[in-house]
From TrEMBL:
This is Oxidoreductase. Belongs to the Gfo/Idh/MocA family. GO terms for molecular function: nucleotide binding; oxidoreductase activity. The lineage of its organism: Bacteria, Bacillati, Chloroflexota, Ktedonobacteria, Ktedonobacterales. It comes from the Bacteria. It comes from Dictyobacter aurantiacus. Transmembrane segments: none annotated. The keyword Oxidoreductase applies. SUPFAM superfamilies: Glyceraldehyde-3-phosphate dehydrogenase-like, C-terminal domain (SSF55347), NAD(P)-binding Rossmann-fold domains (SSF51735). Keywords: Oxidoreductase.
Length: 336
């Protein structure tokens, strides 16, 4: 008889590394609003700034270092929204300390880094998940369900775009090569993740071009065609020099699903479209906080001793795809 696993009901106790905007504005409020989590502490190298940034959470402890979060025995899970170049280092430190880690995307700079993180998580007996919050939004869940059910027939083409303009913000971490910036790493990884979720495999080959200009040695724009075999393709474009825009078209042999705002819909009502037999139908979704759904899922996995929905094998395959795109475009990677 297998031993019975007792499932705790108390909230998972969270810590956050840094005062990154996404943590302050999105994930911290999501944890505080979650049904199964509690934000305990924030670690920052600037305690005064952190105290001001987290003034909306007066009961949260503010530490003056990242190490203090990792060393706090009360904290069970750590959210890491640091610059890309620091993801592996601090995730590994937290994992080795026995903390579960939710790490911002992309989880690492290279597949090799990612593999090291995965091995440390397994050796430490804790959970590690890449923070692609959009995968928990009902519109994405619905779209993948339609695809699995064959509603639009076998998918042969997925087109997806994500861009915004930061050309005048040279200090932005997304433009810093030593922090592993670049449009593909920041917004282009979303289409890559979506392609993998739809086709459930890695591309066989990649053709790509990147645009790099001036003193910035990261890609300001990336365009790529990914061949998934059997006549299945993914086409992506990412940019830091175009207006704010995003979208996805999922085209099957019998129909098409259109997601006008697939990645960052905010807490607004959303409408997706399915076109089949010459007719277009709308599918409406009430506004939700996809960050809250993400942290609740991760906390549930911690308490139930289950693997997260976003598998680490999927994450590693996507990291390899990012590298393949840069290689195909002739951009040395990693830059740092």
């Amino acid at each position: 008889m297998e031993p019975r696993i007792l499932i705790r009901k108390d909230p998972v106790r969270w810590g956050i590394l840094s005062t990154a905007n996404i943590g302050v504005r999105a994930v911290a409020p999501a944890i505080r609003a979650s049904s199964n989590g509690k934000l305990i502490a924030v670690g920052s190298r600037d305690k005064n700034h952190a105290t001001e940034a987290y003034s909306f959470a007066p009961n949260v402890r503010i530490y003056d270092s990242y190490d203090a979060i990792i060393e706090d025995p009360e904290i069970e899970a750590v959210y890491i929204p640091l610059p890309n170049s620091l993801h592996a280092e601090w995730s590994i430190r937290a994992l080795q300390a026995g903390k579960h880690v939710l790490c911002e995307k992309p989880m690492a700079i290279t597949r090799e880094e990612g593999e090291e993180m995965v091995q440390v998580a397994r050796d430490s007996g804790v959970l590690l998940m890449e923070a692609f919050m959009y995968r928990f939004h009902p519109q994405i869940v619905w779209a993948l369900e339609q695809i699995r059910a064959g509603v639009i027939g076998p998918v042969r083409l997925v087109r997806s775009s994500f861009s915004f303009d930061i050309r005048t913000r040279s200090e932005n971490i997304r433009l810093q090569p030593d922090l592993a910036g670049g449009s593909l790493m920041d917004v282009g990884c979303y289409p890559i993740n979506l392609f993998r979720a739809i086709y459930e495999r890695s591309p066989r080959s990649v053709a790509a071009r990147v645009h790099v200009t001036g003193p910035v040695s990261v890609d300001l724009a990336t365009n790529a065609v990914l061949d998934y075999g059997d006549g299945c393709f993914g086409i992506l474009d990412s940019s830091f020099g175009l207006p704010s825009r995003q979208g996805a078209e999922i085209i099957g042999e019998a129909g098409m699903i259109t997601l006008p705002v697939p990645f960052t819909p905010g807490n607004y009502d959303m409408t997706a479209f399915i076109t089949k037999d010459g007719q277009m139908q709308e599918q409406s979704f009430s506004g939700v906080d996809q960050y809250q759904l993400e942290v609740e899922h991760f906390a549930q996995c911690i308490r139930s001793h289950q693997d997260p929905q976003l598998s680490l094998s999927e994450t590693l395959e996507n990291l390899a795809t990012i590298e393949a795109i840069y290689e195909a475009a002739g951009l040395d990677w990693p830059i740092i």
